[in-house]
């Protein structure tokens, strides 16, 4: 098992964060939660952290809205090209960029990257297109606890983001 070290967070602080931010996707009296999000401001010195739990193995679409928040009229200060990192409960990185790093960024609407499917879903099904300078991907994840962190793409940028997960999205 890997040890966690999120910029000075102690293990106890990280566990408290995990428990306070955790969203459990479980059957409730009224049904299932299929989409959830978390919004915050990210700066070079303030990383956005969060977590979620999946009770069943699921396909998830992840969108980190930055520039599209401005397009939707939700903020005047979006974070351009947010970096996203996702880890499992054991601290294993789940995403890899083209250079072999663990942060991804961008949401292409053409090509063969996983983000293309997510961008198309938001355009055709949700009717709320993502911007190519947002960040998006999809993954098939086993039941378990997952954490995420969002950072700026440069040391000079800051702005607002919306981290959104769609669980087992409808086909289109």
Description:
This protein is of the alpha+beta class and 172 residues long. It has one domain: Jelly Rolls (Sandwich). 17% of the residues lie in helices and 32% in strands. The protein has helices at 11-21, 67-71, 114-126; strands at residues 24-25, 35-42, 48-54, 58-65, 83-88, 135-141, 144-151, 159-167. The strands form two sheets. Strands 1-3-7-5 form a four-stranded mixed beta sheet, covered by helices on one side. It is globular.
Keywords:
Jelly Rolls; 17% helix; 172 residues; alpha+beta; 4-stranded antiparallel beta sheet; globular; 8 strands
Please give the alpha-carbon distance between the first and last residues.
39 Å
Unreliable segments of 5+ consecutive residues: 1-5, 12-28
Mind summarizing the main beta sheet?
A: 4 strands, mixed
Instruction: Kindly provide the radius of gyration, computed on alpha-carbon positions and rounded to a whole number of angstroms.
Output: 16 Å
Give the SSE map.
Blueprint: H1 11-21, E1 24-25, E2 35-42, E3 48-54, E4 58-65, H2 67-71, E5 83-88, H3 114-126, E6 135-141, E7 144-151, E8 159-167
Parallel strand pairs: 1-3
Antiparallel strand pairs: 2-8, 3-7, 4-6, 4-8, 5-7
């Amino acid at each position: 098992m890997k040890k966690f070290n999120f910029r000075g967070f102690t293990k106890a602080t990280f566990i408290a964060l995990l428990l306070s931010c955790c969203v459990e996707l479980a059957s409730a009296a009224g049904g299932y939660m299929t989409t959830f999000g978390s919004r915050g401001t990210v700066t070079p010195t303030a990383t956005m952290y969060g977590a979620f739990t999946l009770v069943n193995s699921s396909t998830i679409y992840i969108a980190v809205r930055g520039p599209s928040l401005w397009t939707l009229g939700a903020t005047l200060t979006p974070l351009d090209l947010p970096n996203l990192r996702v880890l499992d409960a054991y601290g294993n990185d789940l995403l890899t960029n083209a250079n072999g790093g663990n942060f991804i960024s961008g949401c292409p609407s053409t090509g063969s990257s996983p983000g293309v499917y997510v961008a198309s879903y938001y355009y055709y099904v949700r009717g709320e297109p993502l911007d190519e300078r947002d960040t998006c991907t999809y993954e098939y994840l086993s039941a378990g606890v997952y954490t995420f962190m969002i950072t700026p793409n440069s040391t000079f940028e800051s702005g607002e983001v919306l981290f959104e997960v769609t669980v087992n999205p409808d086909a289109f």
